[in-house]
Specification:
This is 1,2-phenylacetyl-CoA epoxidase subunit A. Pfam families: PaaA_PaaC. The structure is a single chain. By secondary structure, the protein is mainly alpha-helical. It has helices at residues 20-41, 54-73, 75-79, 88-113, 119-128, 144-162, 171-199, 203-222, 232-239, 247-265, 290-300, 304-317, 319-343, and strands at residues 275-277, 282-284. Helix 2 packs antiparallel against helix 4, helix 4 (88-113) packs antiparallel against helix 7 and helix 6 (144-162) crosses helix 10 (247-265).
Amino acid sequence: MSIKKPELRAVDSPNQPITQDAHEAADDARVGWEHFQQLMEEDKRVEPRDWMPEQYRKTLVRQVSQHAHSEIIGMQPEGNWISRAPSLKRKSVLMAKVQDEAGHGLYLYSAAETLGTSRDEMYQQLYTGKAKYSSIFNYPARTWADVGAIGWLVDGAAITNQVPLCRASYGPYGRAMVRVCKEESFHQRQGWEILYTLSHGTEEQKQMAQDAVDRTYGPALQMFGPPDGDSPNSQQSMAWNIKRFSNDDLRQRFVDMIVPQAEALGLTLPDPELKWNEERGHYDYADLDWDEFFSVVKGNGPLNHQRLAHYRAARDNGAWVREAAAAYAAKQADATRGSALLSA
């Protein structure tokens, strides 16, 4: 897909005088566009101080901030199980994982800030419900096995989607994803180990694991986004080298990966149409419930309201900490300036 070149005009109306500043601004934009186009064609990185089309900037702010929001909201389903994990080891491992997710959110908010959107603005967009996050986190984690299914399927889908983002054309985003993906690999392994233990335990434990997989499978496949024909943003992101593969291509990769893994677990995937297609060299799978997906995205999922309410309460309750930290930082800055004046 070719990149649409923006119209570069010195003035917005022919009745307006063409000033020297307007000419220089148009020339700068033209040079910037040519450099940006060259970076895309040579598959190189765009850095924060480089000129970039406004739509490229907006697309990145939307994608990176939504990714950050998903990491923060995604702490809730598993954080709810820290105190109920079946052993001290399980508690400590799960606590470390939830802490990692908080760190991922911070990396990504930092990357988004380099695009000119403040962190407070992104926080406020999530607080008010204006911003979106991954729909998978609006489903409940009903049992301990769901924690395993989240690790194996949800984090597995995240890795499939995010490893190509390590080569995203925007430098800060791609570099942040390198560390995120390394830690997500640990998370997927943690989920796999939980499910393996349960599926090789008692019949009751195996059924618990199977039920969790049945609940998580469909929403996990929907994490890659709508089908390509219904995802106009995906095509533009690929033209800009932000994304490397389409939603459907990534979803197919994930299905091909998890089928043998499910066999190793001794569990089945809840799809009667799932079978190997020799001609395509891939597994065929049934259509997903996209009506449910869009309903959840619009705020009508099982726990949309609860997730946001919990986030708002946590943010409100932590306001005094942020205020105290800001006051301390201001006091330290004043003291530093005072010392500098005295020594001058």
